[in-house]
Amino acid sequence: MESALACSSFQFLCMITLLLLSFLSMQPTTSATEFSIKEATVQDIQLAFQKNQLTSRQLVEFYLNQIKLQNPILKGVLEVNPDALTQADVADKERKDKTAGSLSRLHGIPILVKDNIATKDKLNTTAGSFALLGSVVPRDAGVVTKLRKAGAIILGKATLSEWAHFRSFGAPSGWSARGGQGKNPYTLGEPCGSSSGSAISVAANLVTVSLGTETDGSILCPSSYNSVVGIKPTVGLTSRAGVVPISPRQDTVGPICRTVSDAVYVLETIAGVDTFDKATIEASKYIPKGGYAQYLKKDGLRGKRLGIVRQYYDFQDGTFLNETFKLHLETLRQRGAVLVDNLKIENIDEIMSDGSEEIALSFEFKLSLNSYLKDLVASPVKSLADVIAFNEKNSKLEKLEYGQDVMLQAEKTNGIGKAEKQALLNMTRLSKNGFEKLMKRKKLDAVVTPFSSFSNILAIGGYPGVSVPAGYEKNEPFGICFGGLKGSEPKLIEIAYSFEQATLIRKPPPIRKFGVVMV
User: Fold this and answer.
1) Given 227, 339, 462, 495, which is the most exposed site by the fewest CB atoms within 10 A?
2) What's residue 19's pLDDT?
C-alpha cells in the first residue's frame, strides 16, 4: 500500500513538474526571447508581435544588452538613443490599439542609422568627428522622417569611417575619432567602410536593420566584408536631405540588413519624393506601383540575362575563390539565368586611369559640405575651412597623424571651372560608352561581379547594386554583387533574392564576449 502510494505520489509530482515546465517554456522569458531574436528577420519579429510572443520593449532591451556586451570590442554603435525604450512602448501601445494589418512592416522594429544621417532628437549627428559634436540639425533627414512615419524605432547611430572616409585615405577603414576602430565581427579585423558600423551591428545582431550611405563602395564593401546584404539604390531614389554630403551626384542612402527581404522592406520604406532633395522627384519615376516587396521571388533568376565581366574574376585556377564563384555561376544557370560570359567593358582601361571622379568629388564636397554646415541651427564649425582648422587645433583628439589630405585638397578648389565641368562630362561619357553600352548591346538585366569590385563603375554613373553573402574563406566573409542600370532595382531584387534563397550562405559570426570566442 505504502509502495503504491509512493509510486502514485511520484507520478503525480512528475506530472505537475512536466506541466510546470511546459507552462514556463511558453512564457516570453529572457533566454527564450534572446534565442528567438538572434538572426530573426523583420517577418519573424512581426509574427512574434502578432502572437504576443514578443514586444518592441523586449526587442529593444535585447539589443541594448547586446550592445553593452559586444560594442566595447566591435565598436559598431556610436550612440544609443535615450528615447529608444519610450519609442518601443509607444509602438507596443499602437499595436494593441490599431487594427491588425494596418501597421507597416517596420512598425516597432529597431534601426540604426549611420552617424552622417541627421536625427532631430537627443542623438548627435557628427560624421564621427568631434568637430560636429553638439551641432543642432534643423530637421530629421528625409529617410528618417519616412522611418518614423512607418513606426520604426531609431535605436541609435552607427559608427563609420570619419567624414564617410573623406578626411584622409591614410586613416584606417572603419575608424573615426568619436567611435574608434570598428571591427569585423567574424575576424576582428577589417570591416571596410565607410558604412562600417551599420554592417558590423547588423551582422553581430546588435540591431534588426540599419541604414548606410554610399558615394563609392561604402554600402557594397562593408556588406561584402561582414556577410550581410546591402542595397546601393539608384542615386535620387532615396533622399539625401539631412545627410552630411560628399557628392550630390553620387551620394545615396540604402539599407544594410541580414537578408534581402529585410533590405527590401527598408528600401520600400525610405524610397520616394522628398521636397528637400530635388533629385528624388526625377528618380521617383523608377518606383514601381505596389512597391518593391512584390519582387521577392524565389524563381526571380528565371530568364534573367546576367553579364560576366571576366576582368573582375582574376583568380588562380583551383583556388578556393575560383571554385566558389564557379559554383555560384552554375547555381545562377541552374536557377534559370542566362549567363552572357567573357564580356569586357570597352573603355574599362580609360575608366580606371581617368582622374575625373577625384576632381569632381573634391569640389562637390567643399560646395555641398559648406551648404550643409550653414543650414545647421547651431554648429562649432560653419565651413570646410573651419573643420580643417578644428582638426589642426585638436590634433590629438582627432588623431591628425592619420592626416586630412582629402579635405585639404577639397579646400583648394574654387567652385566649378573649366576643369571641373570637363570632369563631369568625362564621367557621363565614360558611363554611357562603357557600362550602359554593354548592358544595352547585350540586353543584360544585370552584371555579376565578386566582392564590391564593381563599385566604381556603379558610383560614377549613379547606378544601383546589391551585395549578397557569397561565402567564407578561412572565416573571412565575402559577397557577390549584382549591378544594373538606373531604376533596375526590381530586377536586381529578383536576382539577389533568388540567389540568396538558392544558397542560404550567411551564417552568424562567432559568439564573442569581451573578446573571447565562446564555444
Assistant:
1) 339
2) 35
DSSP letters spanning 144-166? HHHHHHTT-EEEEEE--SHHHHT
For 80-104, what is each residue's pLDDT tens digit? 999 999 999 999 999 999 886 789 9
**Rounded-to-integer distance, Cα 363 and Cα 286, Å:** 29
- Look up 486 and say whether it is catalytic: no
Residue 207 half-sphere exposure toward CB, CA atoms < 13 A: 35
Residues 252 and 376 in one domain: no
Residue 223 bears catalytic tag: no
Marked catalytic residue, from 56, 75, 114, 196: 114
For the chain, state the CA radius of gyration.
24
Look up 442 and say whether it is catalytic: no
Residue 472 within any structural domain of the chain: yes
487/283 Cα distance (integer angstroms)? 8
pLDDT digits (tens, 9 = 90+) for 307-357: 999 999 988 888 999 999 999 999 999 999 999 999 999 999 999 999 999
Supply the DSSP string of 359-423, one letter for each residue: HHHHHHHHHHHHHHHHTSSB-S--SHHHHHHHHHHTTTTTTGGG--HHHHHHHT--SS-HHHHHH
Give dist(CA 313, CA 309) in Å, integer: 8
> Is residue 425 a part of any domain in this protein?
no
Domain assignment of residue 459, yes or no: yes
- Which structural domain, as residue segments, surrounds residue 365? 356-420
In 137-295, which ranges are E strands?
153-158, 175-176, 180-181, 209-214, 229-232, 252-257
Among 381, 404, 420, residue at a domain's last position: 420
Is the same domain home to 259 and 371? no
- Give yes or no: residues 119 and 185 share one domain: yes
Which secondary-structure segment (H or E) carries 326?
A: helix 320-334
Q: Within 10 Å of residue 136's Cβ, how many Cβ atoms? A: 12
Are 50 and 163 in the same domain? yes
Domain identity same for 270 and 393: no
DSSP 103: S
Rounded Cα distance between 402 and 398, Å, is: 9
Asked which of 420, 436, 470 is the last residue of a domain, the reply is: 420
In the set 194, 196, 201, 356, the catalytic residue is 194
- Distance, CA of 155 to CA of 126 (rounded, Å): 16
What is the pTM for the complete model shown? 0.92
How many independent structural domains does the chain possess?
2
**Grid cell 506541466 in the structure block, residue:** 19
DSSP state of 436: I
For 249, phi and psi rounded to 5 degrees? -80, -30
CATH of the domain at 142: 3.90.1300.10
Instruction: Say which amino acid occupies 113.
Output: V
Choosing from 198, 210, 218, 261, which is the catalytic residue? 218
Does the N-terminal peptide bond of residue 194 adopt cis geometry, omega within 30 degrees of 0?
yes
Residue numbers of the chain with a pLDDT score lower than 50: 1-35, 514-519
Q: Which of 222, 246, 486 is nearest to 210 (CA)?
A: 222
Query: 506 lies in a domain?
Result: yes
Write down the pLDDT at residue 9: 42
Report residue 220 as a C-alpha cell.
Answer: 557594397
